[in-house]
Structure formats: structure tokens, C-alpha cells
Amino acid sequence: MQLIKSDINIDFLGKQKIGFVFSALLIIASIIGLIVHKGPNYGIDFSGGALIQVKFTQDISISQVRDSLAGLDLKDLSVQDFGQPEDHEFLIRTGSTETVGKGLAQAVSAAILQGTGMAPEIRRVEMVGPQVGDDLKKQALLAIFYSLLFITIYISGRFELKWILSGVTAGALMTAVYFLSVFNVSMPVLITFALIVSLVLFWRLQLKFAMGALIALIHDVFITVGIFSILNLDFSLPIIAALLTIIGYSLNDTIIVFDRIRENIKGESSKAALPDLFNKSINQTLSRTILTSFTTLIVLFALFFLGGDIIHNFAFAMIIGVVIGTYSSIFVASPVVLAVSRKG
Amino acid sequence: MKLFTLKRVLILGVIITAVVFLLPTFTNTWPHKKINLGLDLQGGMHLVLEVQNVKAVEAELERTVDELKKELRKAGVTHLGIARQENNTILAELPDKEAKKAFETIVSKEFSNLTVNTSSAGGDAANFRLRLPDDEDEMIRKMATEQALETIRNRIDEFGVSEPDIRIQGEHRILLQLPGINDPDRAKDLIGKTAQLTFQLVNDDVSVDAALKGSLPVGSQILYENKTDPATGATAKIAHVIKKQVLLDGSLLVDARVEFDQFQQPQVGIAFNRKGAHIFDRITGQNIKKRLAIVLDNTVYSAPVIQDRIAGGKAVITGNFTLEEAKDLAIALRAGSLPAPVTIIEERTVGPTLGADSIRMGIISMLAGGALVLMFMAVYYKGAGLIANLALVMNIILIGGGLAAFQATLTLPGIAGIILTIGMAVDANVIIFERIREELKWGRTPLAAVHAGFDRASLTILDANVTTLIAAIVLFQFGTGPVKGFAVTLGLGIVASLFTALILSKSIFDFILQKKTSSTLSI
User: Does the beta-carbon distance from B347 to A126 stay under 8 Å?
Assistant: First the structure.
């Protein structure tokens, strides 16, 4: 069986403009989403606060639960349905991390019992102090930054044999970020700055594959974050894990294409032939690109629909990431490499 | 041709090892290493405590102030006040030259660890600033954290949690992983209790009302007692004026256990060691007809009138305890007090039913996703697809065996990592098969096509997987708990899929092709 004909020949680079407009639209939408919601919607892992999942044995309405909690004076209280309706489960979120005297879960449980006459089962409690939240936020950003950096070193080393050059560049960047972070420079600003410096350096040093990969990765992560923001979904630790996996996955795709480009480019010296050569490489690997994305999406959808609510958003982030990552390896990474190659 | 080449034996060895490690999770066989389930799957509590070790430093300085005053009193030196100040310093005001000299002698002899700064305060008077050096400050903080860890470990051991994991995190944090805990609130209460037990006299020179209105005598403080009315169950706070001087504290305890009074009401009986018993004997003898308050964590539990000298060093703490409260208090007193208060800065508790649900749903989605992928591969690549499917099943066995062998922890995101691996692991096979198809199309024989396919695809597959492996390693470094579990299964999955695709599938292809003479290949 064959889905993609082996003699397929789509002029992907000829459709670069469409890709460019599409990416630009997604990025603009992401920026608007981020502005409207005043930055990413941090879950309690990063903003601090508490989350309590309660389950009842009988039918009860959200407003009953909310009303019973009114006396506790909880900051930014929200009560949502959770899971299937027949489970009578709710998610209680608050910005408060403690109540006077008793533990938060204890207080919530007592208040609900008093207010509704039904004792809830406390299924899950997550409480993160504001300081821990700040630490986790910093670590998450650093983790994303480091994985981007290590991966780009690997790419310029493997594809352009410039291990030392890219290693030294990355080393300098890491040292700079480390020293500035000691002086309490805001982490998002720092990392944005470091990424821009990396891109300029890759451009100046003609590390075209590293540059293509890095731009594609920033593109993927940014759009995934943007879509989460547009849909007002929470950022939690597992979502960061999803983002890092997306970085790995998207690159996986990109490398397969780059590898073919490298194989086909051997012995080819004329720059005029480059667009055709890039197209040929993308087409040759297209079948694999689609098949792998397809099997990965199969399992992700299984996880999304059957894996339960706790893992729901993680699966969703991965689905977006796999789709965007597959798209970007064809429409973002390769065109960037081509553009840099033509320049040099 | 030989059936058993060295390579095949090695492959079989790897698979058998994985199966052996995986078996104990389902049966109870050797080597008895089950896959560890994370707290999110088996239920339990994850806590991060912050030791407020600044308080330990402050307490140390307060002790120094007391000792300094005592030494000065002994030497008959007058002073205008000695008090702890901000910034780890003690300010001592001396009225004249004579006192200044005597003070200097005492400090250089008894308190030489402090750095001294003198300044004139007009006339002959002098002010001394004694500062705790930074390295000592740091040492006290470190000791406080370590001692808190020890104390909490003792409490947890007595509380009875199987396989707790308690460790210091960073400079002043303590991480606790308590699997399978039934009553998280009770455990938290026990862990967070400072259990600072002191015996202090009640100041009866002044009425409580007057003291509350502001005429609190120097060296006294207001502390409260929680009284419950047995008839109505309502609690009230009763104020006491308590002298600040601590006559005896819990550090000299040798035992604490639950007892019952004549109304079968639980109380905690405590026993002091010889030194403590001697002090208790002396203070009760000197203060007959006065009231002695038993203070626990700045709350008065009782303040009985001393009727007679008490020898033998035994006392009881009463206070309307439930049996559980009394038990936990006894545990806390036996395990010792915390050197500084702790606050819970992170908590993640998962009930056992939710954990079981998560496992069930994780397995269902793994089976569903896996079945779909297996079906697809068989339909799309026919015979070769079956090889890929065998490789995929082996892959999962290898991940499971790896988890058990390395005693890694399987979490809910970890299950997601395995599911993701099912989807991504076929990638290596897809890359190879597509390449083989290409080679076949160019007219190669099946054997040559298979060899060319593997040769050309191997490097690509390595390159592609290294990047995901980098992401997994960074994630492992950065993540805690559940996220770390994801990094582990993702990383194991990548290594396993490299093995199954590049070594196992290739070996199966070779095995089939060496026997076959036909010129077709089912792919």
C-alpha cells in the first residue's frame, strides 16, 4: 500500500510565499492572543496557588459548591466541572496557598460539608507557594533555552562539521545567561535576547542548518504557546515537557529533510540548482514525514480521548506541536536554509 | 548457514534480560524489582518544606544575649541594656569605663566567636556591637536544616509510612515523598509541628486584664490557651501572662507516650532524663503555690498550681486531645523539636482512587493507540510491517524492563511518554522501509535493497533521535516527579527504538532473506 506516490513532485519552495503568509498569520494571532490575555496563562505550577479536585457521590451544582466556599475568603476562587458529568467531579482553584489555622484542603472539605451537607472525596491537592512558582518558571525557561542551544550545537556540528565554532558560541551564550541571571535580569527578556544573539551569530557565521532549525523551533514553540494562550489553557509543568518534546520531534522531521538535502547536495556546486535540489529532497522524504506524523497523531488522539483529564492538555499541546512541527520542517526550516545558502 | 550467530545470541540475551526484569511487576518472581509507581499513580503526598532557619539564627542570638547577661550578673557588671538587633548583631550599652573594661574581658574570654565593634556613646559610656560572623550564621542555618531533616525523618518513621523518601533540596528546603498515605492532613500536622515544649512560670503579679491593656511587665509575654467547653464544644482563647524565662525545655525528654486520665481522656505523659528530672525537682521545689505553665509551640496547654516538689521527672500534658492528636504529639515530642519552624511551600497529594483511575486510563489509551498503529503498519507494509510490529512490541518490553532494572519511577506523564514512543518508534522502521522501497524501485534485488536501505537510513535515524534524546536529558535535569518520569520513558523509548530498528529488525530481515530465494519482498 502506498499513500504518497513515489514519483510525487510538489513544488514546495515555489509555495514558500503561501507558507510565509500562513506562518505570519499564526504568529500574529499568537501575539494578539498573548497580548489580550496579558501573557501566557500560567497554571498554579508557575503562578502559585492551589488546586483541589473533589468528587461527590450525588448530583451537585457548581454554584452550590462555590457558595459553600464563600466564607473561606479565598483569593481568585474558581470552580469548574471536571471529567464526565456522571462523575460529579469539580476542580477548585484559588490563588491562596493557605487558610488561617487549618490546611487548605481540610478547610475546603469542611466548608463544603457544612454548606451542602455532602462530604466530598478529596482526590487531588496541588499547592505551590509563590516562591516555588517563580523558581519553576525560571527553570522551565532555562530548560527550553538549553535544549534549543544544545540541539543547535549538534546540528551545526553534524551538518557543517563546525563543532568547535558552534560549541564556543553556545558556551559564550550560556556563560552570559548564567552571569546575567545572577544579577536578577528578568528571565524571559534574557532568553529572548540570547535567542536573537544566537540567530545573528548563526547568520554571520554562515551556520545555515543551525539557523534553519532554530528558526523552525522558535516558530513551533511560539505558535504552540500562542494557541494555548488563545484558547486560555493553563501552562503547567507537563506542558513544558510537551514543549520540549515538540522541540525534539519537530527537529526529528527537520533533520530527515536536511539529511536528504546534504546527501543530494554532494557534487552540486551551482547555486541555481539549489531550489530544485531542496524540492527533490523534501519530496523524497515526504512519504516518511506524513506516515510518522500520522502514527504519532494516532497515539496522541488515543491519549487525548481516552487518557483522562489530567493528561488532556498535555496530549493537546503535543497534537498542536506535531502538526506545526511537521509543517515547519517543510515550510520554514528548508526555505531558511535555502535563503542563507543563496546569500553565502 | 548457522542459526545462532553471535549477534543473534546477543539480541536474544537483551530481550530475555528485559523480560526477566519485567516479570516481577506482574508475578512475584526473581529479581523482585517491581516497576516503581510514582505518587500520581499509586496515591500519596509530595511535600516541599521550607525551614525558616533565620529563626534558628535568631534563637541562637537570643541565647547568647541571655548568657551574656548571666555572665555580667555573675561578675557584678552593670549595663544599660543588651538586646538582639537586626543583621545578626547584639547591641550592648555600658555606662562607664569600668564596666566597659569588664565587659571586654568577658567577651574576649567567653564569646570570642563574635566580632566586636566599639563606639563611644557620649562621656564614658560605650556601645558594643557584637556580630555573628557570616560563616557561623551559615553553619547554624545548615545545621538547622539537617537537624530538621533528621527530626522529620524520625517522626515519619514513627508515624509508619512505607518507603518514604526524605531529602534536603537546595539550601533550606526539605523534599518529602510519602506514598500511600491515608490521612494527608494528619501527616502534615505532625510534620509541621515545631514541638517546642517549655516550662515557664505564670506571672501572677499582674492581672491578665491589665497586661492586655498594655501594662505588660518587662520579661513577660501574653500567651493563649485554647479551652474547649465539653458541653457545647465551643472553643475559647484564654490569655495568660507568662514569664519569658524558660525553666526547662523538651530537649531533656527521654520519653513521651499516650496515657489516660480518670475520665478516659487521652493525655501525654512525659519523662525527663536525670538532668531534666533534677531541674524539674528544683524548680517545683522553689516555686510551690505558684503556677507553672506547660507551653507547646507558644500555646499554653495547662498552667497548674505547683502543690509540692515533684521528684522523678515525670509530668503530663493535658488539653482535650483526641486520641490521634495525643498520639501525634507524643511522636513529635519523642522525635524532638524542630530547630526552626517549617512551612509547606509545595504540596501535591493524589488520592489512591484517582491514582488507580489514572493507571486504568493510561493503559486503555496505550492499548488503543498501540492496536491502531500495529494495524496500520501491517496493512501499509504487509510482511515488513509485521517485522516493524514485532520490533514495536519488543520496544515496549525493553522500556518496561529498563524501568524495573534501573528502578526508575513510572508516572502518568511517563505512561504518556511510552504511548508517544509507540507512535514515534515506528519512525525508524518507516524511514528504513521507505528507503528500501526506493531502492527496490531502482531495480535492486531484495537483499541489496534491504542492505542499502539500512546503510543509508542508519545515520539519519541516529541524527534524528539524538535531538529528541537531548530534549529528554534536559527535561530529566530540570524536571521533578511526574515530569522526570516522562523524561525517563521518553529517553528509554528512544534508546530501545534505536536497538529494535537498527539491530533487531535488520537481523530479522537478514534471517528471512538468507533462507529465501525468491526475488520478491513483502513491503
Answer: yes
Cis? peptide before B31, omega within 30° of 0: yes
Whether B211 shows a pLDDT value over 70: the answer reads yes
Summary mean pLDDT of chain B: 88
Burial label for B179, CB within 10 Å (0-12, 13-18, 19+), is buried
Q: How far apart are CA B37 and CA B481, in angstroms?
A: 11
Q: Which CATH number is B54-134's, of 3.40.30, 3.30.980, 3.30.70, 2.40.10?
A: 3.30.70
* Site from B325, B350, B427, B480 to mutate, A interface, most A CB atoms within 10 angstroms: B427
B521 compared with B339, residue with greater pLDDT: B339
Q: Which of A4-8, A247-251, A326-330, B172-176 has the lowest mean pLDDT?
A: A4-8
- Work out the number of other CB atoms within 10 angstroms of the CB of residue B314: 13
What distance in Å separates the CA atoms of residue B263 and residue A290, rounded to the nearest whole number? 78
**Is the torsion defined by CA of B405, B411, B412, B418 positive or negative?**
negative
Q: Do A169 and A271 sit in the same domain of this protein?
A: yes
In this complex, the residue of A146, A296, A315 whose CB is nearest that of residue B474 is A146
Rounded Cα distance between B231 and B228, Å, is 9
As given in the structure block, the three cell numbers for residue B417 are 511518554
pTM of the predicted structure, to 2 decimals: 0.85
- Is the per-residue pLDDT at B350 higher than 60? yes
In CATH terms, the fold of domain B197-321 is: Gyrase A; domain 2 (3.30.1360)
- 181-210 in chain B: CB under 8 A from chain A: 184-185, 188-189
Q: How many CA atoms lie within 13 A of B400 on its CB side?
A: 20
Indicate yes or no: CB of B419 within 8 angstroms of CB of A299: yes
- The answer to the question of residue A2 being in a domain is no
Higher pLDDT, B495 or B226: B495
Cα separation, B258 vs B321, whole angstroms:
10
Question: Quick check: is A58 in a domain?
Answer: yes
- Please report where in the chains the cell 528558526 appears, as a residue: A215
CATH number at residue A53: 3.30.70.3400
The domain of A105 spans 49-128
The values of phi and psi at residue B144, to 5°, are: -60, -45
Residue A185 has pLDDT above 80, yes or no: no
- Split into its structural domains, chain A has a count of 2
Residue pair B302/B293 in contact (Cβ under 8 Å)? The answer is yes
Name residue, grid cell 569588664: B102
Query: CA–CA separation, A86 vs A94, rounded Å?
Result: 24
DSSP string spanning B348-378?
A: EEE-HHHHHHHHHHHHHHHHHHHHHHHHHHH
Query: Which H or E run includes A317?
Result: helix A312-328
What is the average pLDDT across B127-134?
90
Q: Is B350 exposed, middle or buried (0-12, 13-18, 19+ CB in 10 A)?
A: buried
ipTM of the complex model: 0.88
Average pLDDT over residues B301-315: 88
B416–A contact, CB cutoff 8 A: yes
A243: helix, coil or strand?
helix
